[in-house]
Write a structure and sequence with these properties.
Elements: H1 3-14, H2 21-26, H3 34-42, H4 47-54, H5 59-66, H6 85-93, H7 107-114, H8 127-135, H9 144-148, H10 154-161, H11 169-176, H12 181-191, H13 196-202, H14 209-217, H15 222-230, H16 235-239, H17 245-251, H18 257-263, H19 272-276, H20 282-290, H21 297-307, H22 326-333, H23 338-345, H24 352-358, H25 364-373, H26 379-388, H27 393-396, H28 416-423, H29 438-445, H30 452-459, H31 465-469, H32 476-488
Length: 500
Amino acid sequence: MSETLRELWLRGLAFNEAAPADVLIRLLDEAAGEAGLLMCEGRDLPDAVVDEALHHPVERIRRALAHNLHVDPARLAPLASDPSGLVRANFARGSRHQPRWVRPLPYDILATFLTAQEGGEDGRLSEQDIIGELWSSRQIPLSFAQDMAGHDHPALRTSAAYQWRSLSAAQRDALLDDPDPGVRKAARESSWVLDPEAVEARLPPIGSRYAVSVLCSYALSPAVVELCFAHDMVNPLARNRHTPADALARLARHPDTEIRRLIATRPDLGPAAAELRQDPDADVRMRARLQPSIRTWVEFDAVQRVVDHGRDCTCPITKPADEPSPDWFAACAASGEPVLRRVAASRPGLPADLVEALAQDEDEGVRIRLACHHPLAPPHLLLDVFVTRPAHRPHLLTLSAFPRTGLTHLIGHPDPEVRALAAADPALRRPPVDDPDASVRRAAAANPSLAPETLETLLTDLRTAEGAAANPSLPADRMHALLDHCLNGAATAPTAAGRR
């Protein structure tokens, strides 16, 4: 048996959906090499395999499992307090291949990370190193600060205090008067961002990167606003929610189209909105037409997540901290403005009757948004977007409603990714195991409709061996026979007769 054939069998078995737990556990053996690591990171796993990997003596196995986005994160909770700091950091970092749907970690796991007193028994990382990975991972829900502001543990209230702008006025007051001195200190250190005079006093040099961050987000005094106009630093003013009305009126007449575009949908725009609806730029006019439908900053956020993004946008999808009302989304779904219908299509909770209507919308952007965001999007729409918009394919393949049968009409498609999808359809009479594209051959070899004798032939062909080993119709004892040869270093390939 060649080393290449051995690696192909191991990889195929690692991703065989029908492989029983005892087969997968054998792949945790160090002799399985990269296949075991790829399995731990890249697929859903039976509970018995998860338990084995969670307590595996080889750190690399636990580190790979920590990146897994297919297993319920609650099952992976022990990794948050693993003896290895590198395992903890991998879990805090999340998947190395960021999915569209960003899965938040349960609050008890977040609490374990944020209240840790050390970074692991090995001492390779500090708890702050790991917390830094966590904050940048998008695994912390956007509502976390609001939910933790009243938590019993002071470390979690401290974390909330550092998210000052996300808190309500009552929560800020409570943290400033917190019984714990560390929490009070964090609250005082954070509170200046909403104090215009304090912001003016601490303002970094105009033009520095930190100054741009301050000017985009923090409360601004009249003097700072004038400083921005004097230095032609008005882009941050257009983004800042604390920019006063008189400054917005000046920005509405700014010669830079991008500045007028940035402010055109703001809910606090006032009379300038009517002026922008007559703007010489078509995009500015379109955005200004949306403005009467945007009454709150929460509605503004919902629109901004759509209006600045094209049909092939693959930005992460996260659950917002706050959402507009269902009635507002329903009004968007019935709007004559395609952008507002795209906003409605992006809401996973949109009712079924509106989903049905938007699935037939004349605007392709609406249909794409619905396919990528809504669990009730019809399978035919998911397939249509898969075929026509390649950028969305990785995400669509993760959706439970995505069709896996009825695809035989696509087997001759010029795009190999589409042919590979069709090649896996169990209703296909002759899976194209000789297709010139490797991904199509692998999908065809993994098709459960193949006859046992054909499957045996494919197992010995380097072009199809990995797909054949991943075939769910492969009997469990045959899987074990392949593993015996792979892990025990046998020199010849096992035969079907050899397992009887």
